[in-house]
Amino acid sequence: MSRWDAIVIGAGPAGIGGASLLAERGARVLLVDETPGPGGQIWRGIETVPESRAAILGPDYRAGAAEVARLRASGATLAFSTEAWRVEPDGTVWLRDAGGLRREAARHLLVATGAMERPVPLPGWTLPGVTTIGGLQILLKREGLLPRGPLALVGTGPLVYLYAAQCLTAGKRDLVLVDTARPGAMLAALPHLPRALLGHGPAYLAKGAGLLWQLRRAGIAVHTNARQIGIEPDGDGGLVLRFLGRGRHRLRLSRIGLHEGVIPETHLLRSLGCRMLWSAAAVAFHPARDRDLCSSLGHVHVAGDAGGVGGAMVALLEGRIAAMAILERLGHQVDPLLVSATRRARRAHLAARPLIERLYRPAPELLTPPDEVVACRCEEVRCGEIRASLAAGAAGPNQLKAFLRCGMGPCQGRICGPTLAQLTARIRGVTMEEAGWLTVRPPLRPVSVGEIAALASEEP
Amino acid sequence: MPFIRLDPPTPEAGPELFFEGRPLRFRPGETVAGALMAAGVTAFRETPVSGAARGPWCLMGACFDCLVSIDGQDNQRACMVAARAGMKVRRQIGARRDAAGAGK
């Protein structure tokens, strides 16, 4: 077991920004990620992507190449295909790779676990052929796979339009958009417009407008204000999508993508016991952080979407801000002008965020679905059972787990957790913070007893 | 419905894995999930509770809905495991079994 100055968990933009800077300044850094290479979801496959595919994915994707090259040159120790399955507040990190289990220790932890897509529990969301839109985009980035046959993209958020535009660029035309944003969203977002015109805000708005224009020019069908969405098998290997928009619709499709925005991936942070806060604007829990992006635990910094969704550039800059704070604590000299310039740049990239959050806020009924909808995909617990259990006195997500097994399957509540908290707040009439979140206990990834026994026999 | 492989397309010759005994050609760099989806496989497993068919949902390792059995090892996330030549992939039916074949 060696002792590192810092272990960085997650090799997306935040982890790349943090690990590069730490290593360049002479700190002993270990960067771990469970995927085979650097980039996170946003720059997935950036080191292996053929030029033709990078052209489809666009300039924001290509921007990752320079940052990954900087990481490779930084001297940071990189461990890919390596899972952090247990992390302790004192800086002990238990890893698993092809060689088995091992333990590392660090003076500081930088958690950069990124975001995940908000679960979209609606009738039929568990059917094969229904995935997240982010998942479809990962298949395009990582593997160059484009769905064949009629595809519906259902939901709201920038990723819906980005992926639709990427499909068009790749030559896919049999595409329909089913927008779940409410008609009032534009008006409600208007008060955030002035701030969105500051800093880098206009660049983000221009990007969004460009995507919408590309879809309109291509004549892609867009259904707006879609409600009462349900998916069924068509009996012939395909899917039927029903919804109420301007009239009732019934579409036959070969594949459906769902997306209602992204939320911080806080699984590891909750296992550490970091204090969590609820953001009504982002409709998500995120860890409490100070100016230096330090969590409620002194040795644990959090950078990037794991701390609150801000996108790739914010994540990269937050990685650097956290790295500078860690360097100071390690006794390195850090130029205060560089710190303040990096903070300013981060704020400039966040200018349009409140507008985007309001514009693409998920409709309330998607957060507390009808009784027949499966909330916990692993244990197949339905919203009706959860409502009944809450009405009978279950206090919150952790008691629901004990009573109904929801959150006890292999995903450990990553998918049903948000729904459990929303239903608790709604039924019991409490705030989201009072409703709370599923407590997380290691292992964070399934580890067999045999593997742990092998580790124990090696260590005296 | 299968996926279209963009540049490069599926090679005429190249590595193969076996899904339920059937050979499937893949491109180096693909995950097991990618290789199966490209071949038109949608159902990867049957749930232990109701026996419902499931396929990948998140494709980033969070949801554990793409669990398959690989070379006799159950509970492998198809979206996180790189496809290798000769690999034997099977649908995971019901609860996982450990190496000795016992249920969980």
From TrEMBL, chain A:
Name by which UniProt lists this protein: BFD domain protein (2Fe-2S)-binding domain protein
**In this record, what's one Pfam family?**
SO_alpha_A3
The answer on whether this UniProt entry bears the keyword Cytoplasm reads: no
Report the domain of life of the source organism: Bacteria
What keywords are annotated for this sequence in UniProt? Oxidoreductase, Plasmid
One MF term from GO for this chain?
Answer: oxidoreductase activity
UniProt-listed InterPro entries: BFD-like_2Fe2S-bd_dom_sf (IPR041854), FAD/NAD-bd_sf (IPR036188), FAD/NAD-binding_dom (IPR023753), Metab_Enz_Cyan_OpOx_G3PDH (IPR051691), Opine_Oxase_asu/HCN_bsu (IPR017224), SoxA_A3 (IPR041117)
UniProtKB/TrEMBL annotation, chain B:
Identify the InterPro entries for this entry.
2Fe-2S-bd_N, 2Fe-2S_ferredoxin-like_sf
Cite the Pfam families for this sequence: Fer2_4
* UniProt cross-references to Gene3D superfamilies, sorted A to Z: 2Fe-2S iron-sulphur cluster binding domain, sarcosine oxidase, alpha subunit, N-terminal domain
Q: Which GO terms describe its molecular function?
A: iron-sulfur cluster binding; oxidoreductase activity
Q: Which UniProt keywords apply?
A: Oxidoreductase, Plasmid
Q: Does the keyword Electron transport apply?
A: no
Chain segments annotated as transmembrane? none
Keyword Metal-binding attributed: no
This one is known as (2Fe-2S)-binding protein
Give the species. Paracoccus denitrificans (strain Pd 1222)
